[in-house]
Each structure stands twice: as C-alpha cells, then as structure tokens.
C-alpha cells in the first residue's frame, strides 16, 4: 500500500499554499498518494495533477470536500474521491454550493461586526475578486489580524485565529450561521454522479458521541450509499479510530485517513502524515488504482 494522505487544502479554499506547493511538500514528506480536497471546488485539481507529473513519485487523486448539513448537524464534510473534475454537471453543482457558502460567509462577517469585531477585508475582497471561496478560517483571520482587535484578542485569551474561530464561528457560537445546502444525501449523490467515491471526513471532529457516530455511519451507508469513512485522522484518538474503523468494516466501507494539511503555519493542520493507524490496516479500495 502506498504512503497516503487523503485530505489537503490549497489557496483555492482555506489552505495557505497553491496546489503545486501542496503537492511538492507532500512529496517531500514521503506521501505517495495524495488528495487535494478543497472545499466545494475542484479548481486546483488540474494544477495539482500537473505538479505530480512533474515532481514524480507521487500520485494525486482528483477530489473535493463538500460541506453538508444533516438534521441538527450543520457542517458535516463528505470527501469525493476519484471524481471527474471536468464534468459540467459537477461544476454546476459546486458553483451552486459555493453560492450558498458565499451568502453564509457574508452573514457571518456581519455577525462578527455586530459583535464589535473589526474585520480586515483586504484579503476577503481579494479572494472574492479572484472567484475564490471565503470560509470561516478567512473570517477568523480577518478579525484576528486587525490591529483594532488586539486588546480584545488578548483579553479573551485567543492565542491564534483558530481559537477565535472556535469561540465565534463553530455551531452554537455567536457569529456562526448555518448552511442551507447541500444535505449529506445530496453531497453523496453529487459525488457518485461524477464517478467518485463518497467518504465521511473526520467523523469525531463533528460528532462527539461514539454511539451517534456509529449510528450515523450506519445510516449514511444503508440509506445514502456512503462508500467510506475517514477513520484515521490527525485528531482521532485510538479509541475513536477503532470505533470508526470497526463500523466501516462492518458495512464493507473503505477506511481512509489524513492529516488535513492546510499549510505550514496552521496551528493544528500543519504537516503531512500526522495521523496514526493504531494497529489497523486501511482499506483504500480502488483509490490505490485511481
């Protein structure tokens, strides 16, 4: 089995490096099978594929990460692997999903300002002008980096923009605003229509209760046709990994993994291969031959 890391992000979503540099750093870290999984876009895939061919020794799987809603869960992520990133129907769907994302970002920016934060909109406006999505990390950085907020950042003990995001922009936080589309079922159907495999990303990042994770995998597999679970993840404990793995294995699902690389300066997701297998053997299925 190749050395793999099947979730990473570039400047086309909430990463800090262009796709070519993401691939180069992955190769330097010993990754042989990589997925560039920018949020709700495949715009960086062609560049990543070109970089892999030029660098050699690393394969890139065309992929994307779709932010989805499911009942009370407002931001579950479904990874689409091996998709046809040139499929016009897929591109139209992703454009619609990003449209919802853009409206949501504006609502959260307004909410932050209503809560007294001043936003540095320079980078936000630049991304919008380039047609790139604006996510919660960008909003958190826009608040954290503005000098007018320095005293408040210190007073609230927000060590980095990630802490500000957690305090204000996660479900239940005061500036968080919910997505409206797609549902998990719609995300999985969109991935399948583009010839891909649908994998639930980092289940214990979004759902804390092990019993609920098990029940959710059961439901996604039996009702929506889920193909796999990202059982191996940088923040998953040994117990969480074994729970996700056993449930996926019960349904005959793939078991993938990643360090969720966002850039070398990210407070948590800053290096490749930073996840453990905890004595288990991943099942990547046809992803090793994509």
Sequence of strands across the biggest β-sheet = 1-2-3-4-5-6-7
- Number of helices in the DSSP assignment: 11
In the CATH hierarchy, the third-tier topology of the largest domain is known as TIM Barrel
Secondary-structure-based class equals alpha/beta
Question: Sheet with the most strands?
Answer: 7 strands, mixed
Q: Percent range for helical residues?
A: 40-55%
Head-to-tail CA distance between termini? 13 Å
Low-pLDDT regions: none
Mean pLDDT level: 95
- Name the CATH architecture of the largest domain: Alpha-Beta Barrel
* Rg over CA atoms: 18 Å
How would you sum up the global shape?
globular
Total separate domains: 2
Q: How many strands?
A: 7
Going by CATH, the homologous superfamily of the largest domain would be: Metal-dependent hydrolases
Given this structure, which CATH class of the largest domain is correct?
Alpha Beta
From N to C, what is the helix and strand string?
EHEHEEHHHHHHEHHEHE
Beta-strand fraction estimate: 5-15%
